[in-house]
Hints:
mainly alpha; single chain
Amino acid sequence: MENFSLILAIVVITALAFDFTNGFHDTANAMATTISTGALKPKVAVAMSAALNLLGAFLSVEVANTISKGLVDETGIRPEVIFAALVGAILWNLLTWLVGLPSSSSHALMGGLIGATIASAGTGAVHGDVLVTKVLIPALAAPVVAGLAAMLATRLSYVLGRKAHGKAADKGFRVGQIASAGLVSLAHGTNDAQKTMGIITLALVAGGAVAPDSDPPTWVILSAGLAIALGTWLGGWRIIRTMGKGLTELQPQQGFAAQTSAATVILASSHLGFSLSTTHSVSGSVMGAGLGRKGGVVRWSTATRMLVAWVLTLPAAALVGAGAESVTDLGDWGTGVVAVFLIASSAAIWKVSRREVVDASNVNDTEEPPGVVTTAIAAVTPPPAGTVTEDLTATIPAPAPVAPTTGTESAAPPATV
């Protein structure tokens, strides 16, 4: 019984550690555009996002129930399986944070859970219909829907603000952007914090601490909300830079449109119980907003790397989760080996990240030049209204210098232009 209580405590602590990484990994979803457009100072933005993440954790438990009751068969799942799943999710979160790619923490968690469950109980323990309808289909639809909505909203914003004074319009959109960013943070709490609630509840059911089909206990909701809020407060500056500056250049109108579109999609999915990736939604809306402004472009080299990370998230986390489960299945010493591996790997990733520090002081530094596709699009796309065009006289070659003449030499004919 003592051993059981210890493993259950380890699972809960590891789940809260994942929730913490989820917080700083996904801070960019709520605040990257707000920071990049200058609507809020970086530290103020992450503090506001942290508070609203905590509040959002108490608004609903639908997504938590999708994970704890729907994705896998909770009967026969041991706490060690949950621990192995969390190992896969945490390591994927840290690796993608290190390279500044906004991948899905949600899919990392579900991938780890699927891989560990299959390694422990076989494919029959995974509910394929739930995986398809509430995970895979929303993963494909969310960036497309959010992107189209943001594109239309961006164009509408520029049309409505066409006659407004430049500074006054920018100030109004910045205020709106702060409000919409707060809504995204609230939505993030209702969706992502619940994933940890669901995984802890599943572990409690597996360990016999709560009855099957139970909703998350109050202490689980509170601890998950606090963990994701703390991670958000620290700020995932690497991913904020990619989302705010590396993907496209945003003006306040675009930032407002992107945040509002993403928040709408996330809140709707939370109400329906879809375990939606907020990363997919916000990334899609940022790209849509970038394309919605006349002359705006997206850095497709960055977008391509993001897409590759999205595709790899589920299988990569599943493989690590399955491997970790195979080791924990060897007994207590196997669980200890996996725990040591997780701690050592996390420490190594953190040490590597210190070689090039990204923080609030340099988060808005653009580190990636436009790619070939972006340059080509910009060359054939008319610039937005109000942009000063390049002085065309600079492209006219200067006349060739005329050599001095003497009295006995005939003057050279004038150069023909």
